[in-house]
Amino acid sequence: MFKALADPTRRLLLDTLRERGGRTLGELEEVVVEHTPMTRFGVSKHLRLLEEADLVVTVRRGREKLHHLNAVPIQQVHARWTAKYTEDRLTTVVTPEHEPEGQA
């Protein structure tokens, strides 16, 4: 999942699907092309990587393939690792006297 999130184009696709799911490849291609020159094949490749990471699910509607964000893996990472660092209980502060030698 982290490899899938590392690429700015894939993050753009996820942000776009978060705004409104159920988008076709053509709709997603239009959004990506506004920000970076990319072919339809390139967008499709990024979507496939997001699907493999379980961050995007697709649903067929007739001849269309609609893409939807699956936020569950991101929420699990947040709950497992990120949330505990945003709690009010955190009191650890790095001060100059606690920095390793030579970095002050």
From TrEMBL:
Domain annotation HTH arsR-type: ranges: 1-89
Q: Which CDD domains match?
A: HTH_ARSR
**Which keywords accompany this UniProt record?**
DNA-binding, Transcription, Transcription regulation
Q: Which InterPro entries match?
A: ArsR-like_HTH (IPR011991), HTH_ArsR_DNA-bd_dom (IPR001845), HTH_MetalResp_TranReg (IPR051081), WH-like_DNA-bd_sf (IPR036388), WH_DNA-bd_sf (IPR036390)
The source's domain of life comes to: Bacteria
- Pfam families hit by this protein: HTH_20
Q: Which Gene3D superfamilies match?
A: Winged helix-like DNA-binding domain superfamily/Winged helix DNA-binding domain
Database matches in PANTHER family: TRANSCRIPTIONAL REGULATOR, ARSR FAMILY (PTHR33154), TRANSCRIPTIONAL REPRESSOR SDPR (PTHR33154:SF33)
The identity of this protein, by name, is Metalloregulator ArsR/SmtB family transcription factor
The organism named in the record is: Pedococcus ginsenosidimutans
